[in-house]
């Protein structure tokens, strides 16, 4: 009231000073001015922590989780109250598809020089890039990355295979490899590689295509050993729609293409790459062009009809770009 009284006195004694000046408020205490002032103070001191329960924070948590697990982890990190109103702790369900980060890929060795244990992750849907410290990788060998965004690790001292969710930082133990190696005549896991991995059977089991030994094995968390499904060589495997798709014809697999039916197929000159192209399973056939430079390649694209068991020639990739590697093929929007 002192500031209001002074302004009113100045305007009365000096008319020239009142021109263009802010007019003094004459609202009585408890009127609109007081209410506005009180509302402003209330906004500045809003108790964000106590918005949980059945209120906005709980609803926001559900919406955030439905969008991206990375945002859900950030939401839970705000305060204890917001963690209480969150539906579930992502660390309690590493194979729950709600907490999987399929749109995030790890950029190998991107930050290794700057800080050991720190890795960069790229969201292939939004282009967002984040850095994560992963001390859980210590003592482990990175075998592969699943299409669901999980890291398949081998704890070398014990030969225990583990799955790491890099965003929730939760580890899940899978069976040891001792029995699998011994039955195939291997004394160690030095030459062990993985050419395909993913979740199958409603995300309750993990299927891994190992090399050295060359087997396709399946296991669930809590199992004592790996179950060998197939022992044949497979060029490309990809978990899709709850099944393990392959380019071969072994039992218990969804067959996409059998290279043995192609008389001109050569492992040195040809390659088959299965890819989840925005929710559509596709096969890319890479072939060296005959009579031309060894660097010239020809690419044929097919849509995979799992129900009919046929390949349908396609003219393009629906505006997406496909990156093909020895062990993994990914598809991203070409517009980002």
UniProtKB/TrEMBL annotation:
Matching PANTHER family: F-BOX DOMAIN CONTAINING PROTEIN-LIKE-RELATED (PTHR33165), OS10G0568000 PROTEIN (PTHR33165:SF57)
Enumerate the InterPro entries for this protein. Answer: KIB1-4_b-propeller
Annotated protein name in UniProt: KIB1-4 beta-propeller domain-containing protein
Which segments show compositional bias classed as Low complexity? 1-18, 26-37
Q: Which organism is it from?
A: Setaria italica (Foxtail millet)
The region called Disordered is annotated at 1-37
Query: Domain named KIB1-4 beta-propeller: which ranges?
Result: 121-334
